[in-house]
Amino acid sequence: QVQLQESGPGLVKPSQTLSLTCTVSGGPIRSASYYYSWLRQPAGKGLEFIGRFYTNENTNYNPSLKNRVTISLDTSKNQFSLRLTSVTAADTAVYYCARDAEHLIGFLHWGQGILVTVSS
Amino acid sequence: EIVLTQSPGTLSLSPGERATLSCRASESVSSSYSAWYQQKPGQAPRLLIHGASSRATGIPDRFSGSGSGADFTLTISRLEPEDFAVYFCQQYGNSRFIFGPGTKVDIK
Question: What is the distance between the alpha carbons of residues A108 and A100, in angstroms, rounded to a whole number?
Answer without folding.
Answer: 5
